[in-house]
Amino acid sequence: MTETQAPALFHSGYATLVGRPNVGKSTLLNTLIGEKVSIVTPKPQTTRHRILGIDNGDGRQIVFVDTPGMHRARGRAINRAMNRAASGAVVDADVVIMVIEALRWTEEDQDVLTRCLAAGRPVIMAVNKVDLVKPKDKLLPFLAALAARGEFDDIVPVSAARGDNVEALRSAVVKRLPEGPAFFPSDASSDQDDRFRISEVVREKLMLRLHEEIPYGLAVEVEQLEMFPTLVRAGVVIWVERPGQKGVVIGKSGAQLKACGQAARHELEETYGRKVHLELWVKVRKKWSDSDQALRDLGIDVE
């Protein structure tokens, strides 16, 4: 380096994605990272943990944090834990990305915005699902009304599903990150371990196939895991809250459970590039979603 050359600046930090349930935070995270690090279903409250997606590029490392949807239902321990996880991630962030749906503003959106602004962090509004807006001239009045709701560092319309304008959102985040070293290795895309990854893929396949209240009454835990050069072998327990739910998850002659297991196995084989053998058991743990100890056992922070 010559005397006239200044060292390149490196920006790194945490950018937390927050919003009410089902606004597309997990889809947006996966699009930003360029691979699937967070499971996605059409059902609200699919995300139960903070999920880290690590974006490495020239002069930057952005640690995007996907969070559970902030919601008003606080009756059960799991609802309270999910809200605490999301609120804590806002306080810990260098930049907050509040995700909303284009042309829609609800009381829960207002609740989220109040928490974001109170945290005193830079807030970028990501207006998602703009590809669904028809006619397009409806978007500008909505953006103008949105700008009047608070002091935002930026407002960026995006389509997480199509990837539209996602690079503009990334650039807006980088501008507001502090200078500093990387937090993770340059080849990392997530901090997830194998047990968590496998349990989440199985839970996703169950949520996609099951209906009504069943998806919210189940949890997935990897109890046994062996990793070989050509094989992954996992023993997976699916917890439900009531005996009647066990039969629904298993299905007639085991068909439901078999289909979910096959879908999970196919995805995991693509992920690991080797054969995957899953053994699935369905067990009852009454009221696990309202038990602090059960949530701790499942790796959900209740503090």
Protein model, in words:
The strands form 2 sheets. A 6-stranded mixed beta sheet has the order 2-3-1-4-5-6, sandwiched between helices. The protein has 2 domains: 11-175, P-loop containing nucleotide triphosphate hydrolases (Rossmann fold, 3-Layer(aba) Sandwich), CATH 3.40.50; 194-297, 2-Layer Sandwich (GMP Synthetase, Chain A, domain 3), CATH 3.30.300.20. By secondary structure, it is an alpha/beta fold. The protein contains 9 helices and 9 strands. Strand 5, helix 4 (139-147) and strand 6 (154-157) form a beta-alpha-beta unit. Helix 6 (194-209) crosses helix 8.
Number of domains: 2
Shape annotation: globular
CATH topology of the largest domain: Rossmann fold
CATH architecture of the largest domain: 3-Layer(aba) Sandwich
CATH class of the largest domain: Alpha Beta
- What is the N-to-C order of secondary-structure elements (H for helix, E for strand)? EHEEHEHEHEHHEEHHEH
Strand order of the largest sheet: 2-3-1-4-5-6
Give the total of beta strands: 9
Helix and strand composition category: alpha/beta
- What's the mean pLDDT score? 93
Major sheet details: 6 strands, mixed
Number of helices: 9
CA distance, first residue to last residue = 49 Å
Strand portion: 15-25%
Regions with little confidence, pLDDT below 50 for 5+ residues: none
* Helix content range: 25-40%
**CATH homologous superfamily label of the largest domain:** P-loop containing nucleotide triphosphate hydrolases
Rg of Cα set: 21 Å
